[in-house]
Design goal:
Layout: H1 4-15, H2 23-50, H3 54-59, H4 64-86, H5 92-104, H6 108-133, H7 141-160
Helix pairs in contact: 2-4, 5-6, 5-7
Subcellular location: Cell membrane
Membrane topology: Multi-pass membrane protein
InterPro entries: ABC_BtuC-like, ABC_transptr_permease_BtuC
């Protein structure tokens, strides 16, 4: 027997979606978002110094091990909270910082600030497109972000590739 609700739940946890999410979902994870935001503010300056190298960061009074620990904690809180609300929407964490960096340059603080509007804008735009493309049904949000994100990943890999020796 085919259960539509079970199929929808499986699809949600495979591709992600923002359809049918209420404000209660956001309120549930809001404390984790706030803690992660405070951690991000705390590590923004040390991260900028670590971009210059660990020795420079140590010379400026930052402990790279502690900074990495707080960054991992903030990333885990943000990723877990976002996934709890919308499921695993692929490539957003890759495309958004890449786009932000291309707009504001290499400064990590400016990149993080620019990610704040770009992330939601990407998700909302992708959600609108998924609703328009597959009318009257809805294409899973993760499918569209994967279609956009896969070429971006290839561009990043090609840009970082070292020249081969002939």
């Amino acid at each position: 027997m085919y259960d539509q609700r079970a199929a929808d739940e499986i699809r949600f946890w495979v591709t992600g979606s923002v359809a049918g999410r209420s404000l209660d979902s956001l309120l549930t994870v809001l404390p984790y978002f706030l803690v992660a935001a405070l951690l991000t503010l705390y590590v923004s300056r040390p991260l900028a110094s670590m971009a210059l190298g660990e020795k420079v960061a140590l010379g400026l009074g930052h402990n790279p091990r502690v900074v990495r620990y707080f960054v991992m904690l903030a990333v885990a809180l943000l990723t877990g909270s976002a996934t709890a609300i919308a499921g695993p929407i692929m490539f957003v964490g890759l495309v958004v910082p890449f786009a932000a960096r291309s707009l504001v340059g290499p400064d990590i603080r400016r990149t993080m600030i620019m990610c704040l509007p770009i992330g939601p804008l990407l998700i909302i735009s992708a959600d609108i497109l998924t609703r328009l493309i597959a009318q009257p049904a809805e294409m899973p949000l993760g499918v569209l972000t994967a279609i956009v994100g896969a070429p971006v990943l290839m561009l990043i890999v090609r840009a970082k590739r070292l020249p081969t020796l002939a």
